[in-house]
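Section 5: illustrative case.
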């Protein structure tokens, strides 16, 4: 006999243990501590609004077997302020993972989103992507990863004997630095990145000068500190890019092993300044001892091209971007979007 299911919106306090258990069991890389942090920081403390969790129950059972998270975000598009929500933290126990209950939970999530928010998007893994598509969301593009080597010894040692790599690496490293110097001359203005305490950066002034043509998740100082600056988030650092004394942009970053992962980057003129911003950050990353830089982006193609002009190469790792269709066709146009790892609430 087929099992029937129902869905309830969770009380985040009363259902906390059940939600954490579903994440620990079904989401790769989570333990009890990380799940507790996700629920308290990602949902309860969200400056854009308290997150929602929808729980999937088999009829007649008191324990949920699935959860769908909804993370509020505030997006800006010109003068418009949009109440948006990201679908994330989707987890269903293995024995209930057939398309029926999984799709029922996701469809309920899109219905709640459509009723309460102006914009719904999702950045699923490959397994969840098919469920989002069946639930009515449309794939509008792909988040692409770009990477750039800063030091060559490690990569050379994978191809030639280590002693020879140690001899040749300084020459190759010099070539990398000279190539960046050439790119800096061709792509002005010259910026300088300086690591800056979260409390001292004038983020709100930068955000106030955002370009009107792009659809941007709010990057106020409060939102950036919530997303990256809290100790529970890990060792994320902030570097502010200056042109003379004027703050023109920033990069949020952290070390992962011997390379740097960029969590977010932004400037007051993305088309013109993304290349010099990335080049300035590469100089700082070299001084910090990084072997490489990695950054993700989806949206406005001029920004993607500017990333590549800074010497970054497209890597094979990609992830789909889904959006719930709405009345405003402009929001379906990838050229309007500007998404980075900042916008991914799954981590």
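Designed sequence:
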């Amino acid at each position: 006999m087929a099992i029937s299911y129902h869905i309830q919106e969770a009380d985040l306090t009363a259902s906390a243990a059940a939600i954490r258990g579903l994440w620990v069991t079904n989401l790769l890389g989570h333990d009890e501590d990380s799940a507790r942090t996700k629920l308290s920081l990602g949902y309860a403390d969200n400056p854009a609004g308290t997150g929602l969790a929808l729980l999937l129950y088999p009829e007649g059972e008191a324990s949920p077997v699935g959860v769908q998270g909804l993370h509020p975000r505030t997006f800006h598009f010109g003068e418009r302020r949009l109440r948006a929500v990201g679908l994330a933290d989707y987890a269903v126990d293995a024995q209930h993972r057939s398309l029926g209950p999984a799709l029922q939970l996701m469809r309920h999530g899109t219905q709640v989103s459509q009723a309460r928010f102006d914009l719904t998007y999702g950045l699923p893994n490959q397994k969840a992507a098919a469920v989002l598509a069946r639930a009515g969301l449309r794939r509008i593009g792909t988040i692409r990863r770009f990477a750039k080597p800063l030091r060559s010894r490690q990569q050379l040692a994978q191809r030639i004997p280590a002693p020879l790599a140690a001899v040749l690496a300084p020459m190759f490293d010099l070539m990398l630095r000279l190539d960046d110097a050439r790119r800096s001359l061709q792509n002005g203005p010259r910026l300088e990145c300086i690591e800056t305490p979260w409390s001292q950066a004038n983020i709100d002034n930068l955000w106030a000068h955002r370009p009107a043509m792009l659809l941007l998740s709010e990057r106020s100082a409060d939102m950036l500190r919530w997303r990256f600056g809290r100790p529970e988030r890990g060792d994320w650092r902030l570097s502010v890019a200056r042109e003379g004394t004027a703050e023109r942009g920033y990069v949020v970053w952290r070390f992962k092993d011997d390379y740097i992962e960029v969590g977010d980057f932004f400037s007051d003129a993305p088309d013109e300044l993304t290349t010099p911003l990335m080049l300035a950050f590469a100089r700082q990353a070299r001084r910090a001892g990084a072997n490489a830089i990695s950054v993700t982006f989806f949206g406005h193609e001029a920004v993607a091209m500017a990333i590549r002009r800074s010497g970054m190469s497209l890597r094979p790792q990609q992830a789909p971007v889904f959006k719930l269709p709405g009345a405003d066709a402009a929001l379906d146009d990838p050229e309007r979007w500007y998404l980075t790892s900042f916008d991914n609430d799954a981590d």
